Structure formats: C-alpha cells, structure tokens
## 1
Amino acid sequence: MLPLVEFTYNNSFHASIGMTPFKALYGRKCRTPLYWFKEGESMIVGPEIIL
C-alpha cells in the first residue's frame, strides 16, 4: 500500500512549487500505463481495452 501512497503524493499538485513533485524532478508529467501516449496526442480508449 505504501508504494501507491507515494505514487499519489508524487503526482499530486503542490501549491508551494506550483507543480507535481514528479514534474519538478523530471521536467515532464508522469506517464502511467493508462496514459502511455505522448502529450498532445489524443487516444480513444474503447470498452474492450478497459475490460
């Protein structure tokens, strides 16, 4: 459970730095398995992929 808490913390917006800690460290948004397409690229996910 702790890795999930750490992941959530690192990808939550922090007002003190004006971004997520992940973006502050790596200079980009975190790409999770649900969002493995490039920024600016759109992707339609059908129900057969989600199920």
## 2
Amino acid sequence: LLGYLFNWGLYGALVVQVYIYHIGFSNDRAAWKVLVGCIFVFETAQTILMTHDVFKTFAEGYGNLAALNSTQLVWLAVPILGGIVSCCVQIFYAYRIYVISSSKVIAIVITLLALMQGSAAIAQGVEAAIIGNFTDLQARATMSCSVWLAGSAACDVIIAASMSYFVSGSIFASFLVHSADLSKNKSTFSHTQALVTQIIRLIIETGTFTATIAILDLVLFIAFPRNDYHTTPAFMLGKLHSNTLLVIFNSRLSVPSVRSPGPSLQFRSHYTASREQVRDIGEDGRQQKHAVFLPQIRQESMSGGNTVRIGKEFWSNF
C-alpha cells in the first residue's frame, strides 16, 4: 500500500515538472522533447494500471486473501514499464556523461548495465504474469529479479558517482576561467558561487537518492525472500528516475534577483558556451590535445535585476 501511495505522489510531482518543462522549454531539442513525452506516457500508463490494482485488491477484493496475493497487473506496471523508463533514463545519463567527460568506457558500462537491467525487468514481468501470485514469485523468479535490481542499483551508483565527479569538475573549471571577471562585482561573484554550489548539490542529491532506493530495493529482496517488502521501493524506482531526469532538465530555468519590480521567474533556454582545446602530456611523453566543454558563467540584466547563468554547452551536453 505504501508503494502505491509513493507512486501516486511521485506521479503528481512528475506532472508538475512536465508542465514546467513544456512552458519553459518548448524550443528544446526534439530528441529531448520526445524522450520526456514518451516517459510521461509510460508513467501515466503505469499509474493507471496501479490504480486499477489498488481498486481490485483493496475495494472489490476487500477481505479476500487471494486478491491480496494476486499480482493483478503489477507484472506490466512495475517491472516492464518501470524497467523501460529506468533503462531510457540511464542511457540518457550515459550519453551525457560521455559528452562531458569523453569517457567511452564509463558510457558503455552504464549503457550495458541499463540494457541488462531493462531486459531482466521485462523477463521478470513475463514470469510474474505467468506465475500470477506474490507467494511463488520470489521463489520461482529469483534470477531475473536479482539481475534487474542489482543491475539497476549498480547502474545508478556509477551514474551518481560519475555525474558528481565530472560535472563538478566541469563547472569549477568554467568558474575559475571566468572568476577574474566575476570578482570585479562582489555581489555577482557571491551569487555565482552560490549558484555553482546549488547545481553540484542538486546533481549529487538526485543521483545519490535514486541509487540509495535501488540499493534498498535489492537489500530487502535478498534479506526477506518470503516477504514483499522490496515492492515498496520497487514501485518507486521508475518514477524516481523520471523525476530526477525532469529535475535536471528544469534546472536550466533562469531566476532573476528580486531587487526591482518585474516578473519573479523568466524562462530561458538559449545560452552560449565555448569549446576549448586543452593540451597535456601523454604517458608516451608526447603532447596531446583534446576538447573540453567549458560552460560560460555570465551576468545578465533582467527586469532590473542581476542574473548569473550557466551556459548552454553545459546543460545541452549534460
């Protein structure tokens, strides 16, 4: 029951975030709009299916133990739809990590883990549909469920660690490049420091929270093989992935300081940035050259207030 409640609550948060994304980034890249749209459709379908199950179990089947033990449509709502959503979001992060770090190895590892856990989730859903009850599900579908949960947890941990490391390095590199100009205006410099800290904290918190729930799901599944405690975090996983994705997308919103009359919130999706060439010395002693994305931190005047913003190259390649 807690899993259903958390799922509904997270769906409400997702609806708000999708609405903000729609009005704030209507000119966003077509691929990202398609991604957000597909995820929202899947999540809406999942919520409808789970609402059906709640009614069949706790209303129509009130007092019926067989109804409580039946998987109903959970096999489709949680493993299959949730696994597809998680897989899509994790592959999106793999691409972003590759763009900002140029590390093919990490991106490939994340992509393979995402595909593995997504495939295992679909297999788990098919087995759950065939078995039809929770009592026998964990005993007869242990392998697919273990691969699904372990793969998802491992993938989320790698994503959280990689995003925290590479994104914080990218932002601080840009911050140091532009710090001389920003330091001329102490208020702007202070505001920029706060903005940089806020972005890094957002990335770390969202990634760590999703990874923690995935690990908790795996631990409960292994520790309590004859109980369904793990279904509570399992019901949340898909919605958590979709919400964290929208949180990152909507972080591009520009919020001006309220020092003068004017709109309290303005939506901007057009930025500038630079792609700089950096030279270093390789292990063979030869000079090497590679590209590094440096988001431009700049000050703008909006409605009489100062706004410090991060450039598009960070966000669009993030």
## 3
Amino acid sequence: MIKKKLFTMIVASFFSSFGFISQSEMKHEMQSPILMKVNK
C-alpha cells in the first residue's frame, strides 16, 4: 500500500514537472523537482 502510494506520487510529480518545467530546465533540475514536490 505505502510503496504503491509513493510510486503514484512520484509518477504524478514527474508528469506535472513536464507540464510546468520546460525540457531544457528539466535537464538542469533533474534531481530536485520530484523531491521538492513529494516533500510538499
């Protein structure tokens, strides 16, 4: 249950990152956006 919820959050944050961040910035901030969105 917990692992599935975490996986869903990560996938959702990944897709939302593609929507809000341009591809060029994605390469630059590849490490941070997912962690930031999961922490919020």
